Amino acid sequence: MTTATRHVAPAAQAPATRTFPQGFLWGTATAAYQIEGAAALDGRTPSIWDTYARTPGKVRNGDTGDIATDHYHRWREDVAIMADLGVGAYRFSIAWPRVQPTGRGPAVQKGLDFYRRLTDELLDKGIQPVATLYHWDLPQELEDAGGWPERATADRFAQYAALAADALGDRVHTWTTLNEPWCSAFLGYGSGVHAPGRTEPVAALRAAHHLNLAHGKAVQALRANLPAAAQVSVTLNIHHVRPLTTAEPDVDAARRIDALANRVFTGPMFEGAYPADLLRDTAHLTDWSFVRDGDTADIKQRLDFLGVNYYTPTLVSAAADGTHHGSDGHGRSDHSPWPGADNVAFHLPPGNTTAMGWAVDPTGMHDLLLRLSADLPGTPLVITENGAAFDDYVDPSGEVRDPDRIAYLHGHLTAVHQAIEAGVDVRGYFLWSLLDNFEWGYGYSKRFGTIYVDYPTGKRIPKASSRWYANLARTSTLTPLD
Predict the structure, then answer these.
(1) Predicted model pTM
(2) Residue 209 backbone phi and psi in degrees, to 5
(3) Choice among 50-54, 147-151, 339-343, 405-409 with the minimum mean pLDDT
(4) What does residue 195 show for φ and ψ, rounded to 5 degrees?
(5) Alpha carbon 313 to chain centroid distance?
(6) DSSP assigned state of 62
(7) If residue 126 lies in a helix (H) or strand (E), which one and from where to where?
């Protein structure tokens, strides 16, 4: 997978309307720890995020996911909201510690029953359930045994995948193994801005490999326990990395970040090998002896599609002082999430930004999709997350008006459509997120939802963007903004 180094401009003239292909799947997405709450109910035990959120200074305002949006009790209301949106699919994650609290042994039936009820309700409303096995909530007991840097965790994950598939495979026909393993490995074990909050460069690389291995073994477990027609995927937050200039040091900085952000996963998953330049760049840290014979064969498994999460591009240059500096958009830390690429500077691309401080740049979406189509021929793509946080509020009339979010979505969906016109096989789009929710280290201070949540009461209030998206989901037609 080669590094993208130039911007490919989409067509300058947009037609009056853009109609997506017949069968294009419109959905919305959430994650268990961000919305469920009920953190100690019905046998659920702590995950690494429960522990991390309770650690002073780790999460803004000391927020936790103990209650979140109380989806565990309000799931029926939330499915009704999805039905009103007219979406065809809902991407959710299964909380590992809710269905297998210690990360080993038999399932807790009350935990599985929650997902059985949820998926039955979705199916009753004509909404396709899309289940993600892992969205960052590792059972704390497995972290206590070493976490993702330990090989045994990959074997535990495969057993959990088999358990979930056996319990829900009659209802759920589309599965995702991991969501954004880059965040799990490099933010969780490198910079420490995500759970479990460790700052160990070699542990981050070990975690990346064992997440890859967990993915491959889980795909095998899913296929062994699901009907033949079931679809299996992985979701990666592929960074669209651009060099600040065409000067060789900047281009090389982009190559190094691309290796750590993207090819550390796509290499073994799609090509059956880790990139040679990644191994060279990190040779002073580790000899990669934790990669055993047969591992890459286990990792490279047939996938029905690749889930792509995109929010903003990554702009880098060589650092003049030889150190990692500048915001990479993943939270402030004294420790780098980029082992072996410390002499890189991160830059904010020009233009508008979201409440996260991320640049609004739909061209990154377009260019990324073209790159993936070229590098992974024959692999269908689904946008599994795309959206934006803004400083939403309920106005005196009781409305939540979010024109900036509508403009963000319109621009990025235009980019998706232009990529489809260019021949890219994109089959669906999932808006992040259905609900305002617990935004990891930012707590409840950032609102990504198309539905506003009043946290003290749990009341759901549709934002203007929800009505806009509902019209799009029903018509598959993108019309110009007023």
Answers:
(1) 0.96
(2) -65, -45
(3) 339-343
(4) -60, 140
(5) 15
(6) G
(7) none
439 is in an annotated binding site: yes
According to DSSP H, which parts of 334-441 are helical? 362-375, 403-421
For residue 100, say whether it is annotated as part of any ligand binding site: no
Q: What is the mean pLDDT of the chain?
A: 95
Tokens of 199: 């700052």
- pLDDT tens by residue, 308-341: 999 999 999 999 765 555 678 888 888 999 999 9
DSSP 274-307: --HHHHHHTTTT---TTS-TTHHHHH----SEEE
pLDDT at residue 158 in the model = 98
Known binding residue 175? Answer is no
Tokens at 81, concatenated: 């909201």
> Is 440 marked within a binding site?
yes
Q: Which of residues 327 and 473 earns the better pLDDT score?
A: 473
Asked whether residue 135 is marked as a ligand-binding residue, the answer is yes
Query: Rounded to whole angstroms, how far apart are CA atoms 299 and 265?
Result: 10
User: What residues form DSSP beta bridges with 89?
Assistant: 27, 128
What is the token pair recorded at 135? Answer: 């969205």
- Is 148 annotated in a binding site? The answer is no
Strand partners, 8: none
First to last CA, the chain: 40
Q: Which residue carries 């899309």 as its tokens?
A: 130
> Going from the N-terminus, what domains does the chain have, and what CATH number goes with each?
18-478 (3.20.20.80)
Tens digits of residue pLDDT in 249-273: 999 999 999 999 999 999 999 999 9
Q: What is the largest CA-CA distance in the chain?
A: 64
Rounded mean pLDDT of 23-50?
98
Q: Angle 403-421/362-375 helices, nearest 10 degrees?
A: 30
> One-letter amino acid identity for 149?
P
For residue 384, give the DSSP letter.
Answer: E
Q: What is the pLDDT of residue 41?
A: 98
pLDDT at 332: 81
> DSSP of 40-94, one letter per residue?
TSTT---BHHHHHHTSTTSSGGG--SSSTT-HHHHHHHHHHHHHHHT-SEEEEE-
Active-site amino acid positions: 180, 385
Two tokens at 221?
Answer: 């477990």
Name the helix (H) or strand (E) containing 343: none
* Of 453, 362, 440, nearest in space to 400 by CA: 453
